[in-house]
Amino acid sequence: MHPHQASGASAFGSAESDCRRRTDAGRVRLLSDLIAKGYIGELSTHSRGSTVDVAIARADRKSAPKPACGATDADTLDFGTGFDCFDPASETAHRPIASEAAANRKRLVEAMRARGFKNYAREWWHFTLENEPFPKERFNFPVTAE
To answer: I want to staple 19 with a disulfide (CB 3.0 to 4.6 A). Which of 12, 31, 42, 110 is the partner?
Structure first.
C-alpha cells in the first residue's frame, strides 16, 4: 500500500468503498462532507511526514474527563473535545470553552509553534511543519512493516 492510498484507507475506511465515517454519536458522515467542511484534506499532509496530530499526555495518571465528542480513550489533558471531533468545538480558538481546556490548547499551540509547527485552526490537535520540505509532493512508495 502507498502512503496516499493509506490515508484514504485509515480510520475513515476505504475512500473507494463506502466513503463513510461513524462518529461518536453513531451517526454516519460522508467522507466527502468532511472534506467539504475542511475537517479532512483531499491530499493528506500526514502522508508527507510534515503533519502530526498531538496532545499533551497526563503526567499524573489521573483520569481525564471524557470528552463528549471525538476520541474518548486518550489519556490527555482536557482540551474540551477529543481527537477527530468533527465539530466547531474542536476549533483551536472556539469559545465558549472551559478555561482549563482553553489554557491547554494555548499551551499546546505555543509549544508546537516554538518548534516550527503551525496549527490548523479547525482542529486543536493538528500541526504542520511551517517550512514543509515537500508541500506539493505526493509520495508513492510502499509502506511495509519492515
So the answer is: 31
Q: What is each CA distance from 99 to 69, 78, 93, in whole angstroms?
A: 18, 10, 12
- Residue 2 carries which side chain, given as an amino acid letter? H
Residue 123 appears among annotated catalytic residues: yes
Q: Which of 100, 123, 130, 146 is labelled catalytic?
A: 123
Query: What are the tens digits of pLDDT across the range 49-103?
Result: 889 999 998 887 676 677 878 777 677 889 999 888 888 999 999 999 999 999 9
3-state secondary structure 44-97: CCHHHCCEEECCCECCCCCCCCCCCCCCCCCCECCCCCCCCCCCHHHCCCCCCC
C-alpha cell at 34: 468532511
Task: State how far Cα 80 lies from the chain centre.
Answer: 14
